[in-house]
Write a structure and sequence with these properties.
- The chain has 13 helices and 13 strands.
- The protein has about 400 residues and is an alpha/beta fold.
- A hairpin with a 2-residue loop joins strand 6 and strand 7.
- Helix 2 packs parallel to helix 8, helix 3 runs parallel beside helix 4 and helix 10 crosses helix 13.
- The two termini are about 35 Å apart.
């Protein structure tokens, strides 16, 4: 990376993260230890949930929740086609079928009216995604799920810190799942977290993440033998997975959670700078949130105005990259990914709003220490690329 390049994302790591990681390395306890417990406590507290289960990724968390709910072959799960592919892949991982619902063009979340119409006797859950950290319609999804007596699974991997009408992301459904990839609001390098008020679901997820072993406390009572020194460590109650989060990753998470308000404030500052600089650009649609909704800034994604083609959008992204500015198309529609087209026979036109939005999105560089000068440079270059496309039309 050159000195002038502005990357698409960059994690915010401080001395605290370094100190906690070193403390773990010096402790000799690298897995299933006190850092995991503390990280779980901090995330559960922030989400307003009774239980939290640390896992190796957000995808792993979604998989464990669906498996714990008993969802499997022959079942349907209603979800969005406009998301990172993991939200739908987790449904396939338990053998169920994703049923996609088109999105609202302003929030980019599922349209609640279309969601209810998609529920059939085979529907076993609603898996709702808070696109880009926007919690819009989560109350509606919860109401619809309750009406049909099916669980709501909240994919809040992009929404740590968001809320709607005072209710926090992660607390709307039977379970919520956060993700901690390096471009998220907080990172553990790789990692995720299941949050829930359901003790049985939490216990199931704890067992499944650890090869199907019976759950054991990370910090056993003083004098008690370690499960690794007893036969219980090799006793497996069910088919499970190796979805554990290491103590090193958990230590990074503890430090990040202690800094969460600071990290969210810094990302909000950058988002506000972008909004101020791009508000008057006529060919852009900017992110927006509804009344009572508090956005948690995962990425900063703008949308080219209606009338722009996918090719024009792609040329704008290429132009930004040629000026050493990170940019990407967030998100390609899941149903048009090659694997999904081959498996289900999806074709363009099935979900027109999601497809139209997807063809015109541009993710701009976004991280907490992005400077005012860098935001100005990105904004000016984006305007230049748009003017270039406009001239080609005339």
């Amino acid at each position: 990376m050159s000195d002038t390049e502005i990357p698409l994302s960059r994690p915010d790591i401080s001395r605290l993260e370094e100190e906690l990681v070193l403390s773990v390395l010096r402790s000799g306890r690298l897995s299933i230890g006190p850092m995991q417990e503390e990280f779980e406590r901090l995330v559960a507290e922030r989400a307003g949930c009774d239980h939290a289960v640390a896992v190796s990724s957000g995808t792993a968390g979604l998989h464990l929740v669906l498996a714990s709910l008993g969802i499997g072959p022959g079942d349907e799960v209603v979800t969005t086609p406009f998301s990172f592919i993991a939200s739908s892949n987790a449904i396939l991982m338990v053998g169920a079928t994703p049923v996609f619902v088109d999105i609202c063009p302003t929030s980019l979340n599922m349209d609640p009216r279309l969601l209810e119409a998609a529920i059939t006797p085979r529907t076993r859950a609603i898996l709702a995604v808070e696109a880009f950290g926007n919690p819009a319609y989560m109350h509606d999804y919860a109401r619809i799920a309750a009406k049909h007596e099916i669980p709501l699974v909240e994919d809040c991997c992009e929404a740590l810190g968001a809320s709607s009408r005072g209710r926090r992301a992660g607390s709307f459904g039977r379970a919520g799942v956060f993700g901690f990839y390096p471009n998220k609001q907080i990172t553990t390098g790789e990692g995720g977290m299941v949050v829930t008020d359901d003790p049985r679901l939490a216990e199931s997820c704890r067992s499944l993440r650890n090869q199907g072993r019976a759950p054991t406390p990370a910090s056993p009572r003083r004098g008690a033998p370690s499960p690794m020194n007893t036969g219980s460590w090799l006793a497996h109650d069910r088919l499970g997975y190796n979805y554990r989060l290491s103590e090193v990753n958990a230590a990074i998470g503890v430090a990040q959670m202690r800094r969460l308000d600071e990290l969210l404030e810094r990302r909000g500052r950058v988002a506000n700078m972008y909004m101020e600089r791009l508000l008057g650009v006529p060919d852009l649609v900017l992110p927006n949130s509804g009344e009572g909704d508090v956005f948690s800034w995962f990425v900063f994604v703008v949308r080219l105005a209606a009338g722009y083609s996918r090719d024009e959008r792609d040329r704008v992204i290429t132009g930004l990259r040629q000026h050493e500015i990170g940019a990407a198309d967030y998100f390609p529609c899941i149903h048009l990914q090659p694997f999904y087209r081959d498996l289900f026979g999806f074709r363009p036109g099935r979900f027109p709003i999601a497809e139209s939005v997807s063809a015109r999105t541009v993710a701009l560089p976004f991280f907490g220490d992005l400077s005012e000068r860098e935001v100005d440079l990105v904004s000016q270059t984006l305007e230049l690329m748009l003017k270039r496309e406009s001239l080609k039309r005339s």
